[in-house]
Amino acid sequence: MSKATPAERLNERNKMSESQDEPWTVLRLLDWTTDFFKRKGSESPRLDAEVLLSHARECERIELYTAFAEEPDGEQRVAFREMVRRRGEGMPVAQLVGYREFYSSRFRVNEATLIPRPETEHLVVEALDCAKQFSVDRPLQVIDVGTGSGAIAISVVQNFDSVEMTAVDVSEAALKIAEWNAQKHEVADRIQFVQSDLLSEVEKPERFDIICSNPPYVSEAEYRELSPTVRDFEPRGALVSGPEGTEVIARLLEQAPDRLHAGGRLIIELSPMIADACQAMALADPAFGDLRFIKDLDGHRRILSLQRTDHSR
């Protein structure tokens, strides 16, 4: 989204002036804001408008559909207008309202965390499917590398009873948000949080059954082409891997075999643009086998799933 000029802001403010005779009902506010967000380049203008208005009204989004004829009060309109202005300048909706829905739960986010994307839910599904295939008489040992808001780690723990989770991130600020989310969802007692660059500072357990990660995988060139909504507001360190986009994944592929039980799995989210390169790196290491890709809803290779074989390097 492009930032509005002073003249544009004045024009939009005049359009929404409360002196107009026609009342600003919920429906009218949604229609106007949807059109405004379309002109600003939003990929989901109606959804953005509904999320912001429901937040201003402190209600569930679905409740707006039975309140189309109602007029929000003055405080709600002021709050809504300010969020619309900031969204028009590019700020993500999730940061404006302070949360993002992911895998049927709500997670707190801020400028220190990557905003969870729908495609990352495919990683959670793969991790849960793999967890069900283990036959061990102990809790599974799972680690989420680069946990950010904690969405992956918490979602796995919420949906699989017999698991002991470790969640790591190099960012102390991100870990604080992840810990807050774990407390909110009442699973903090089942997750160990560790500040670490990938697996370097993780001492126990020595080996895991599943390593899952949504690491940085954007190249420097790709980063310059990202939408300002992403580039200007989300943490660069959680997005950019390096010149090629494969640098962090390469390091994780190097570290993972020594930290996985035989038969354990490494599950990584990646960009379809680097899928071939990541596949080649994985196939070059005899420690990995049973390589498969999980595609996203657009049919792109999005998740790489590998099994640790019993072969030595």
Question: What report would you give on this structure?
Answer:
The chain has 313 residues and is an alpha/beta fold. It has two domains: 6-97, Helicase, Ruva Protein, domain 3 (Orthogonal Bundle), CATH 1.10.8; 103-308, 3-Layer(aba) Sandwich (Rossmann fold). Helices cover 39% and strands 20% of the residues. The chain contains twelve helices and eleven strands. It has helices at residues 6-15, 26-40, 45-57, 74-88, 93-97, 121-133, 151-159, 172-184, 220-225, 228-231, 247-255, 275-283, and strands at residues 99-102, 105-108, 140-145, 163-169, 191-195, 208-213, 218-219, 240-242, 260-269, 288-295, 301-308. The strands form three sheets. Strands 5-4-3-6-9-11-10 form a seven-stranded mixed beta sheet, with helices on both faces. Strands 1-2 form a two-stranded antiparallel ribbon. The termini are far apart. The model has no long low-confidence stretch (mean pLDDT 93).
Number of DSSP strand runs: 11
Q: Which residues form runs of ≥5 with pLDDT under 50?
A: none
- Binned strand content: 15-25%
- Count of folded domains: 2
Please tally the helical runs, counting DSSP H or I stretches of 4 or more residues. Answer: 12
Largest sheet: 7 strands, mixed
Q: On the 0-100 scale, what is the average pLDDT?
A: 93
Helix content bin: 25-40%
Distance between the termini: 48 Å
Overall geometric form:
elongated
> Which class of the largest domain in CATH terms?
Alpha Beta
Structural class: alpha/beta
- Trace the largest sheet across and list its strands: 5-4-3-6-9-11-10
Topology as H/E string? HHHHHEEHEHEHEEEHHEHEHEE
